[in-house]
Amino acid sequence: MKYHPILSNLYRIRRGLTCYLLLSAAVASAQNQVKKANKIWFEQPANALAVDSKNGWESDPEWLKALPIGNGSLGAMVFGDVNRERIQLNEMTLWSGSFDEGDNPAASQSLPKIRELLFQGKYKEATELTNQTQVTKGKGSGSGNGANVPFGCFQTLGDLRLDFGTDAPYRDYHRELDLINGIASSSFVQNGIRFTREIFASHPDQAIVIRLTADKAAAINVLFNLDRPERFATEITAFHGLRMFGVLDNGRGGDGMRYETQVTPIIDGGRISSQTKGGVQIEGANAVTLIVTAKTNYKQHYPDYTNANYQKEHLAIIKSAIAKSYATLKDRHSRDFSSFMKRVSFQLENDTPNLPTNELMANNFRSGNEQALYPLYFQYGRYLLLSSSRAGGLPANLQGIWANKIQTPWNGDYHTDINVQMNYWPAEVANLSESHRPLMDLIASLVAPGSKTAKIQYGMQGWALHPITNVWGYTSPGESASWGMHIGAGAWIAQHVWEHYAFTQDKVFLRWAYPILKGSSAFYLDWLTADPKTGLLVSGPSPSPENSFKAPDGSTAQISMGPSHDQQVIYNLFDHTLRSAAILGLKEDEFLNRLQTSKAKLARPKIGHDGRLMEWAEEFEEVEPAHRHLSHLFALYPGNEITVGRTPELAKAVQQSLEKRGDDGVGWTYAWKIALWARLHQGNRALKLLNKQLRPTADMDTKYDGGGGTYYNLFDACPPFQIDGNFGVIAGMAEMLLQSHEDFIELLPALPDSWKAGEIKGLMARGAIEIDLKWANGKLLSAGAKAKKRQKCQIKYAGRLLDVELPAGKRVEIKI
Ligand code: FUC
Q1: Helix (H), strand (E) counts: the chain
Q2: pLDDT of 36
Q3: What class does CATH assign to 105-137+343-350+409-447+465-604?
Q4: Staple 78 to which of 184, 341, 625, 766, CB 3.0 to 4.6 Å?
Q5: Quick one: which atom of ligand 1 is closest to the CA of 483?
Q6: Predicted confidence band of residue 233 (pLDDT cuts 50, 70, 90)
Q7: In 10 A of CB 109, how many CB atoms?
Q8: Which CATH number describes the domain made up of 740-816?
């Protein structure tokens, strides 16, 4: 085709321009790719005005679109809304209730009778007597609604609201959560001005820091105030800010925990035009920094949980934070946060364009293979653990550190019959060992009240724990035999002490923690009783967590003698206590000898006639064959007594049980099933469950089955929101790529077919060994190992076992 010279020139210019545009688009997209990896991002705000926290959980769906930040002590949900922003606040220790004397001194008298009845098959009578004599004599958890009983409830600290005094339209909206640096931000153009907001929760400075900026001078006008659904007052502070304070219910109609939170503004240009206890108005600023701090008068110390110095400590935090520039605060925070997050990197072959997170979720729902989503979800789980669990603080509770209500579901407590343990399954393998420490401290803090429970309730030595605990050292049974008698909780939670050692090889820690293991073992040595039929030692009365069966006397029962779960966790504890004593070079004594003998006499897992691993000592008919709990499969995961290689028959029985349980459940059930299938080396099945859990949901109604799914902001839906699913899923993903629960480290033990190529760096194996892996076409390309201490170990891949010698602190290429 011929063009007029002018046209032809124009054509060339246009072609050049197109090429240039295409090229620059490609460069920009590559830059975006880098920029947006490890970021959760959306193109819409969460609606801060839809409801407020006064209206209760069910009516606050936008909260599940907000983005979480936290420093293990302070947490916040950031809506990213434009004209009226809501930042819902939490402080980790903020609990109603108080210490409760819930143990029952009359319990021990009836214990032998209950055991006799159970051994005789009289379940109905045994259950009645248990409910009369063994359960807590207090109000227990308040049936999961304990805000106004002594058990108490983890509660919202309230809302910080920012009113920008305009309803003008906006465009180019973007909000994101940078998982590596721990910064949430939003940005948009309004009235021709680009506004940017950043917010982070700093661990080094113990403050939430908010930064409001604009690309035009004097453009920021904002009114901020604080409120809470109940029990609060506000006042102006000496720092031109606001203070909100109050006292919670101690569960007996009196004063409980005291709290205060302060917002301190630092303005660049402009002025504070009015200041009342109802709000502080800033006008015409170039930039604004808001420093949000909070403290309660709580101290984790039995029997007096009060810290009288909390206000002084708070003031010191505020003074230190406001003395720093925004750049300094941000730099200190990013360096701290990213130093943990950067330990692990994870990519799968990813040819999908950069998409907002909700679109990645939708893609995965359609294809079951959105390769960009899995690593993002994995890093998000690490992000959530780091944000809700930092050394020196309390452990992540049922909702981590994020709760928007006065009555948080199940009190936002520490459920010790799966949930709090699951929270910490990824801690070591995902290279966040320091985040495991708050759990160690919680366990240590339960020794004193748990010893009281063991003594008063059962007349036994050591310390005992049942299926729930709180910040007030609750160790008594729950309020019903059906679930509240779960006595395996102590042994189960103590597994974490051993795992922390196994991964870190920290002997100083083990020496510190040994009394925890010894005290728990001492309790079970007294607690176990000989089964008159077999002579073997069994635990009971105790349920297999929350499950029911049809008893021989025709009743529907939960408690029995020797439920498999108890037997397994107690075996696990005895084994770890004995191993720890040997590592610490402790001399054999009466206690250790008794432990050795009792371990050998414990009733062990049995296979039923249908090939399944038995959940109870007898083959009872189940009430709910697909029940959400998988407690009797503990020995495969998170335990290691059953393995595919060492105990193939038992592993087959676990598989049979899993098949029968089906692929359904609530959020944390999916998580557990992913890990179990991974331990069975069935990566495709694990991925199937992962995809089921990643299906988008907005359902907030409490479910006991037929639940699961993932909310818009990637929080786990039990439902309702429960963070154990987030943590358990990533622990399961780690098991798909690396296992170290036997005497060797296994690489890519359960890689799904569709994860053809990828790379993960920084996962931890037991023995304090950091592993990196790269694979393509489903085959390992390269692997590296870096050990903390010089050691010999065995590494396995595709059935081959390699002996390797690792130097201390140096990466070694593994040729396998
Ligand atoms: C256990 C589970 C429930 C829920 C609750 C917090 O009771 O059985 O599904 O997760 O804990």
Answers
A1: 19, 34
A2: 62
A3: mainly alpha
A4: 184
A5: 7
A6: very high
A7: 10
A8: 2.60.40.1180
